[in-house]
Amino acid sequence: MHITDEIIIAGFGGQGVLSMGKILAYAAMFENKETSWMPSYGPEMRGGTANCITIISEKKISSPVVSKFDSAIILNQPSLNKFEDHVKEHGFLFYEASTIINPPTREDIMIYKIAAIEEANKMGQKQISNMIMLGAFLEIKPLVKRESVLSALKKVLPERHHHLIAVNEQALLRGKELIEINYHVSV
Amino acid sequence: MKMQKSEVRLMKGNEALAEAAIRAGLDAYFGYPITPQSEILEYFTEQIPKRHGVVLQAESEVASINMVYGAAGAGARVMTSSSSPGMSLMQEGISYIAAAELPCLLVNVVRGGPGLGTIQPSQGDYFQAVKGGGHGDYRLIVLAPSSVQEMCDFVFDAFKLAEKYRNPAMILTDGALGQMMEKVEFPEEGSLPHQVPDWATTGKKGRERNFITSLHMEPEKMEEINLHLQKKYKVIEENEVRFETFEIDDAEIVLVAFGLPARICQKAVELAREKGIKAGLVRPITLFPFPKKILSDLSKKIDHFLVIELNAGQMVEDVMLAANGKCPVHFKGRMGGMIIQPEEVLEEIEKIIQQPILQE
Predict the structure, then answer these.
(1) Distances, alpha carbon B284 to alpha carbons B290, B304, B330, in Å
(2) What are the two backbone dihedrals, phi and then psi, of residue B65, each rounded to the nearest 5 degrees?
């Protein structure tokens, strides 16, 4: 496991991109790790592109701004086009299957295709595709523990949405299963 | 005084700054919303009514700064915040406050300019912050945080310095630091006691009238006030310089950067060191007073300074003054809301050290 993991999460606004980064950052904080969350902020909200850089580290983080990433979680085509080349050699790229028509082509990184939106629709909650992606990501890169992620969810979800924590938890689990089924990772 | 810290929280820079101000015993906040610092006003609007103090959204920045002037004159611990175009509107009032020697905290969460510009991070207001900004010969005490923790800590430091010297203090930060989240630990509420000073206009019952003004019609008197202010700034320069260094002991090229770019530069230094390049970093924490001495000392033993800023080159002039021709001072900046990347800084370092050094 790397001491530091620099993660880019990118997609359309409204897909829960910023929340995913926040959840990772909170979970890292609960485990007394160093962390930073840097959003791309702008006037664009729903429909525009959004991304955030989350860094989780065992040591003090120098720059919260980086342009090469250990991990990329990509939820739309423009973001893939933009960030595929920014994944470090031997890094990890997770992409959402249905929104990305031209898949990544790098051969020097690990690539995981996750049918998160399809699965979310099957579960009857299309907003939870981000948590399916996150579950898949954490199965390959267990940077933080499951309990920390659940505590983090409580911080990131506004209180009026706390009844959705259970379904978010299921989504995380579903992401983990998708990896197990598709990529034969032993637990 | 070592302050006791409470639990660790994950917060945006803007929110951490606002929470810190409440814990620092803020009596009043006056401000007007502008991106990328609106979270400060929003946080106060939510929290202050439940806790203590006054929060007021004024009709404009001009009104806000004059409310700050009034409240500071009455001895309140007071602040305002804005972003670049809003800060420009406040300059007249800031000059009055500096002339009247009133303590207060000003926060500029800088965005890309000139003009209305963008809402993305910038350091284009360095000159405005450290060289006066408004009219006349005055200085602000300027602190430049580079982390969310410092967005909190420097609120306490700024109030302490402002009150110690009866001078407005500014936190000069940028949109990225305001919007990003990091871990932060807050000092306990009430750990920065505040008494209404004896010069404050609190009602003259039982004592001589206190009078606060920046208007003095006799030039002799006005020069006297100027001399007094300059003497005070000199004392501040002698006593309150703060900076941080990283890997400078054997450095041949030293980066100079403040705020968020200082952290980007620290990463660049790490990358350079991995390649065997002897790079180091000086991060000015106080922009006024500027850390001249360390830079002057270094200029005699290093080969190059490289100044990195999110502007067209402002602090670089102060670095040049400090180096005073003893070593070359290079500059690389990004503007208009663009952030520089560590790799870009590294490239610049490599470009400089590969140049043959010209001997006179």
Answers:
(1) 7, 17, 17
(2) -70, -30
Residues of chain A with C-beta less than 8 angstroms from the C-beta of B120 = 41-42
Looking at domain A4-183, does it have CATH number 3.40.920.10?
yes
Q: Please say whether the beta carbons of B168 and B103 come within 8 A.
A: yes
DSSP class of B143? E
**Residue contact B341–A34, C-beta within 8 A:** no
Over range A142-151, report the average pLDDT. 95
- Name the CATH topology of B5-239: Rossmann fold (3.40.50)
* Region of B181 on the Ramachandran plot (φ > 0 left; ψ -120 to 50 alpha; else beta): beta
CA B16 and chain centroid, separation: 16
Number of CB pairs, chain A paired with chain B, less than 8 A apart: 62
pLDDT tens by residue, B184-201: 999 999 999 999 999 999
Q: What is the pLDDT of residue B33?
A: 97
Return the structure tokens found at B39.
């979270």
Work out the pLDDT band at B2, boundaries 50, 70, 90. Answer: very low
Tell if the CB–CB gap between A26 and B10 is shorter than 8 Å: yes
For β-strands A69-74 and A4-12, DSSP reports them as: parallel
The long-range contacts involving B134-137, CB below 8 angstroms and separated by at least 24 positions, are: B134/B91, B134/B92, B134/B93, B134/B94, B134/B95, B134/B98, B135/B91, B135/B92, B135/B95, B136/B95, B136/B98, B136/B99, B137/B226, B137/B229, B137/B230
Selected for mutation to probe chain B from A58, A62, A67, A151 (highest B CB count within 10 Å) is: A62
Q: Is A154 helix (H, G, I), strand (E, B) or coil?
A: helix
Retrieve residue B251's tokens: 């450095």
B325: left (phi over 0), alpha (psi -120 to 50) or beta: left
**ipTM of the complex in this document:** 0.92
Tell me: pLDDT of B239 over 50. yes
List helix spans (H) across A76-125.
Answer: 77-83, 116-122
The string of pLDDT tens digits covering residues B260-289 is: 999 999 999 999 999 999 999 999 999 999
**Domain locations along chain B:** 5-239, 244-354
Name the pLDDT band for A42 (thresholds 50, 70, 90).
low
Same fold for the domain at B5-239 and the one at B244-354? Answer: yes
Phi, psi of B13 (to 5 degrees): -55, -45
For B16-34, letters b (16+ CB in 10 Å) and e give: bbbbbbbbbbbbbbbbbbb
CATH code that applies to domain B244-354: 3.40.50.920
Residues of B in contact with A43 (CB under 8 A): 119
Query: For A33, what's the count of Cα atoms within 13 Å in the CB-facing half-sphere?
Result: 21
CB contact under 8 A, B267 and A37: no
Mutation target for B interface from A33, A54, A65: give the one with most B CBs within 10 A. A65
**8 Å CB contact of B264 and A29:** no
Residue extents of the structural domains in chain A: 4-183
Say how far apart CA A167 and CA A154 lie, in whole Å. Answer: 13
